[in-house]
Design brief:
By secondary structure, this protein is an alpha+beta fold. It is 19% helix and 21% strand.
Amino acid sequence: MLIGKPTIIPPSEITSETLYRQRRQLLGLLAAGAVSFAASWVGINTSIAAPPSGPARRFSTLRPSPFSTKEAANTFKQITTYNNFYEFGTGKSDPAQNAGTLITVPWNVTVDGEVSKPGTYNLDDLIKPHALEERIYRLRCVEGWSMVIPWVGFPLGDLLKRFAPTSRAKFVEFTSLFDPKQMPGQRIHILKWPYKEGLRIDEAMHPLTILAIGVYGQNLPNQNGAPIRLVVPWKYGFKSIKSIVHIRLVEQMPETSWSLENPHEFGFYSNVNPAVDHPRWSQKTERRIGEFVRRKTLPFNGYADEVAHLYRGMDLKEFF
């Protein structure tokens, strides 16, 4: 964790990609040649260039986050060429190859439901009042792989407060863009489109939960969920919905895409819990992208101190 009161400093002084690469070289267990082999072994196509998302943008000032991990981040190339984004294909390299069709400017987000001040905003107007932070999070996918990613974003709770949630707001529902012309994966029934996800209101208001608009100090590539996505680091990656166009506060637990598709395998909460196996594989270990050796999976993805209290008294094997 970073310690001390956050201050506004240039992103280059927080977590430059060069610094991450140096730290990774110092801390890595593999020689350079082995790392290259490991990348191919776990399916990373390092030849794919990340397509841009709207006009090139670098954030002039960022503040460090007290929630950042000290772990060395994955490289920009790894983060942008090994993705799950079924709207652009089911293969890990498909999003980087196919997401160039996504148009992210202009982009509007609607916030409504159980709020006193609903509205629809252009993305720039939506994020303008918020102080941007760079947060380095472990993000783990349900298939047993993980990355450490330096996201740029701001707390979701800060945004929701602007719309004055009512006392009936118990959950938050998120909806991705639905446009099969831009998202070729939506032309076939992989899931019930558009993609939907949800959080309990206290999960949404927790300061670990952010809306990300960038990575490595620049705006999100399309394949990473441009131009705005959710990041909930103690849950499996599919909970962190991408390309959001609608945020709705509701009284009842919302339906979510993977729970609709297969409720026996994908529960609403989807907290990282090594004690609960997926029906088709173990959750006890994970593989960090770029490494050979599997590592022990940590409860709540290593964020138990911050979030375990949210589930006090719940049976996390029943409410998975």
